[in-house]
Amino acid sequence: MPVENSVEAALAALRQAVVGLENAVDMRFEAERESSEIDGEVRRVHADRARLAQELDESQFRANSLEEVNREVSRRLVTAMETIRAVLDR
User: Fold this and answer.
1) What's the helix, strand, coil split of the chain in %, to 5?
2) What is the pLDDT of residues 13-45, one digit of tens each?
3) CB 14: neighbour CB atoms within 10 A?
4) InterPro entries this protein is in (predicted)?
């Protein structure tokens, strides 16, 4: 009977080891899945950052263009006002 007990003890230990191995594999798969999700999120954040940087550059260019147009309009208005004053002063 001691042989049967040691075989059963060995089988129980083997079952326990297999369960432990299955748990470790499950945890590893979960960690890989989470890592993959994090990598995907990092890629999305980088893509968003690049898009926002592009939009900011475009907005800054547009603001600069509008500022130049504003200066030109202001200059033309001053010229027009001076011309009107000159005509009225005659």
Assistant:
1) 100, 0, 0
2) 999 999 999 999 999 999 999 888 999 999 999
3) 10
4) DUF4164
Distance CA(36)–CA(23), nearest Å, equals 20
Instruction: Look at the block and give the residue holding tokens 């033309």.
Output: 76
Q: Report DSSP state, residue 90.
A: -
Residue whose C-alpha is closest to residue 55's, from 65, 63, 67: 63
Identify which of 67, 88, 85, 87 has the alpha carbon closest to the alpha carbon of residue 77. Answer: 85
Helix (H, G, I), strand (E, B) or coil at 28: helix
DSSP string for residues in 62-74 = HHHHHHHHHHHHH
pTM to 2 decimals? Answer: 0.55
- Cα 19 to the center of its chain, rounded Å: 39
